[in-house]
Specification:
Elements (H helix, E strand, L loop, with lengths): L1 H27 L20 E10 L14 H4 L13 E2 L2 E2 L3 E6 L13 E6 L2 E3 L2 E5 L4 E5 L5 E5 L7 E5 L5 E4 L5 E7 L7 E7 L4 E3 L5 E7 L2 E9 L3 E9 L4 E9 L3
Parallel strand pairs: 1-18, 5-8, 7-13
Antiparallel strand pairs: 1-15, 2-3, 4-14, 4-16, 5-6, 8-11, 9-10, 9-12, 12-13, 16-17
Length: 259
Amino acid sequence: MATARRQGLLAAGQVAALSAIALLLACSNSPSPPSQAVVATPVDPATAGTVRVEVRYDGAVPTPKVIDMRSAPQCAAAYTAPVYDQSLLVADGSLANAVVWIKSGLEHWVFAPPAAPVVIDQQGCVYQPHVAAAMVSQPVQFTNSDPDPHNVHGRPTVLAQWNFMMSRQGATRTLTFDKPEVAVPLGCDIHPWMSAYLAVLPNPYFGVTPANGTVTLTQVPPGEYVVAVWHEKLGSREQRVVVTPSGSARVQFAFAGNG
């Protein structure tokens, strides 16, 4: 009788502990409350210009490392060829996965966040894309396309941290962020090789460089700005640029490789 009572108390304690953990996770990872409608400062398309940002890598490109998935055979089985680390992707001197944005010069402007979400998928036990960017208050949707469970562990220094499970295929979860940060490391504690970055920007003038290393910012109001670039391995750079009415400006960033 005493043994049965002790077992009942133990089971009740386990349920209470699990409930407490679930409650803490729910509280710490709740998405931001719905934002109120934003009255944006209108940009005159007749005078707006463009900024073409080119990001290059000069020097010998290190051989990319093969991602070791042997600790999770079900992940490795999804591939017939090696999967390479994406932290430094260079093609003909052009640098991919660099975040570019207008860092200053727009402080007196108000911009409405895009309604369409930025999607970060977990597919083949890797994050896709490896680097993503969203505007403050824009929805960021995390998706699990794998049959395997993952967790999304964000480790920001400015924003509040988050960590939640996505245990089933097709699961989604959407977060919004109330302040900028470049850039937030993302990881999966179940599969330690899974890593990505999310940049949260204060205005809509940003992009992540594709394979050709170039992002063109459009509908930029005339003015003087600081354009910035960030890369997970190479750091940050800034340049001043002037956009004249209906004009086109060009900014070039070059990172030196160490071979």
